[in-house]
From TrEMBL:
<feature type="domain" description="Alpha/beta hydrolase fold-3">
    <location>
        <begin position="6"/>
        <end position="98"/>
    </location>
</feature>
<dbReference type="GO" id="GO:0016787">
    <property type="term" value="F:hydrolase activity"/>
</dbReference>
<dbReference type="InterPro" id="IPR029058">
    <property type="entry name" value="AB_hydrolase_fold"/>
</dbReference>
<protein>
    <recommendedName>
        <fullName>Alpha/beta hydrolase fold-3 domain-containing protein</fullName>
    </recommendedName>
</protein>
<dbReference type="Pfam" id="PF07859">
    <property type="entry name" value="Abhydrolase_3"/>
</dbReference>
<dbReference type="InterPro" id="IPR013094">
    <property type="entry name" value="AB_hydrolase_3"/>
</dbReference>
């Protein structure tokens, strides 16, 4: 959770019928941070004004996740401030899909994509290779990982 106001569209479209709900997410915030305002930047990073100086960031979002829009807004904010970033939306999947690698092609694709991104960035940092996922990329992914 990057913004405890739950005001983004994906909370409305995906916040009831996909296992993790808007209420579940907000109850977690209330359990641990009840005394902290939902707009406090240390608790809810989307309320930060300055992202300069962060290391490279790779963000995964799931089509049917209440948190989807938060991740994609974070990607745009990071990119606007010059932070090396990439973002991939996986289509047809819910929050937590990454844990289903034994049964989900999308989860296996996500694991492969994360590994490829990390390897490429590590090699790039050494000056020997350019990432197949360029900095500041946004790539929706299909069920089997095909680019949409």
């Amino acid at each position: 959770m990057l913004d405890a106001t739950a005001s983004m569209a994906s909370y409305a479209s995906n916040g009831e019928d996909y296992i993790i709900t808007r209420d579940t997410l907000l109850s977690g915030y209330e359990m641990y941070l009840a005394a902290t305002p939902a707009t406090h930047p240390d608790a809810c990073p989307l309320w930060r004004e300055d992202f300069h100086g962060l290391p490279p960031v790779h963000i995964l979002t799931a089509e049917f996740d209440p948190l989807r829009d938060e991740g994609e807004v974070l990607y745009r904010r990071l990119t606007e401030q010059g932070v090396e970033s990439s973002c991939q939306r996986y289509l047809g999947v819910i929050h937590g899909f990454f844990q289903l690698g034994g049964v989900s092609h999308a989860a296996r694709d996500a694991m492969r994509d994360i590994a490829a991104c990390g390897i490429a960035r590590t090699i790039t940092a050494a000056g020997a290779y350019s990432s197949s996922l360029p900095p500041s990329s946004y790539e929706p992914k299909g069920f089997a990982g095909s680019t949409m």
